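Worked example (supplementary).
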Amino acid sequence: MSTRTASVLYDATGPKARMRYRAFGLLSLAAIAALLWFVYSRLDEAGQFSPDLWAPFEYAKVQQRIVDGVLETLKVFGLAALFSITLGALLAAGRLSDHRPVRAVCTAVVQFFRAMPLLIMIFALYRAVFGAEPFWALVIGLTLYNGAVQAEIIRSGVNAVPRGQAEAAYALGLRKTSVMTTILVPQAVRSMLPAIIGQLVVTLKDTSLGYIIAFHELLYVGKLIASNTSTPEGYPYIPVVLVIAPIYIGLCLALTALAKWIEARGRRGTNRRTPAAA
Amino acid sequence: MGILFEDGNFALFRDGFLRTVELSAISAVLAMLLGIVLAAFRVSPVPALRAFGTVWVNTFRNTPLTLLFFAVVFGLPRLDVHLEPFTFAVLALSAYSGSFVCEVLRSGINTVPLGQAEAARSLGMNFGQTLGLVILPQAVRAVMGPMSSIFIALPRNSAVAGAFSVPELFNVQATLTDKGYAIFGIFFWIAIAYLIISFGVQQLFSFAEKRLAVAR
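After joint prediction of all chains, the assembly is encoded as:
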């Protein structure tokens, strides 16, 4: 795609344009370098690269705490991912139900939880129900919100399966349940997997809301490390951010890469399976 | 349920509501501008700018918003940047949302038919004119749906600002909870406030979509 837009929006370059683009390129390189240098020198001036500030990360205890934080984050993420996909499947089944009351209730639930800020829910759960257990407040809050979103993804996937598939299945005498489970859902899941994993990336990022209810996930652990380590140069907030941010970004990019890989794989498969005109 | 109308809670609540609206509106405008600039970078003929746009977008899209707030609120003061909590919140929110706007715009640019750009170029338009006068206006129309979900998510995301001492709705919820009012009573009113906001944004977008619609 990028090559297409790149070549569509501007002409193949002649000698003059090539010179101009090269000049622009050098100019913007200089600007980017200046920006990076500015950031670096501001950090340096403020003494953020002094060894004192980075020394805490050499202690095995601090490293262990960061690893524990990552593990807690992954634990919350794993449970929330599992529960939210389960809840999403149930709510999607409810929204596709033939019974109007079931449909109405599920629609209301989905719309409500999708419109609520996650933080508001997690905080209310934490203070009202799980005072001593921020872990479950976080997991359940994440489950409710992401479950509602996953339900919409799954539902749109089921609706996007060509109508002939369901009609053919009914014509063969299958009941609604078997049509759903054997015909529609497998196809919907295949086409919606990238979107489902995309939502899982959001779930992973939102585990950091645990920071606000003082749950010991990665970000909160980082804050504790920063605020409890007093060095001659001050508190190492910026080093902590520089250590933690790449961990989050790496985890999210890994999930995104998984989604892209599955997407590419799915395309390869369907190309082989579907005859010329589908 | 009556807590809203007891001892001055209503004023607190109203201020929080207005703060949320103000924060979301300012961040939305900035995110839109940032998104357009980044999208232009990402499709530009200059490789350095393309790479910059890609790195920027991937960094900010994959950083949790809470971490971004943390970095801005605790990091910047250590570089001698001292601003109001509200300004910090605007910075974090618009940097975060801007990269999502960029990606949506870019996918919109990909949907504009090839002939449009070719026609623009054969009229002698340069890159800026082609993008600004021909491609972007059509791209924006094509992505009104995904765009509206970004801007409906923005007020919801702005709740994180409350945890970093901006007196908006989440902050009101926390304050009232600490005062010992019934938690679900508070939740009820806060929920209604957010539903009103997201309904408002939705209406705004469906109005815009109708106004922008072109008969083809």
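Two points are worth noting when inspecting this output. The longest helix of chain A spans residues 237-273. The CA atoms of residues 94 and 102 of chain A lie 6 Å apart.
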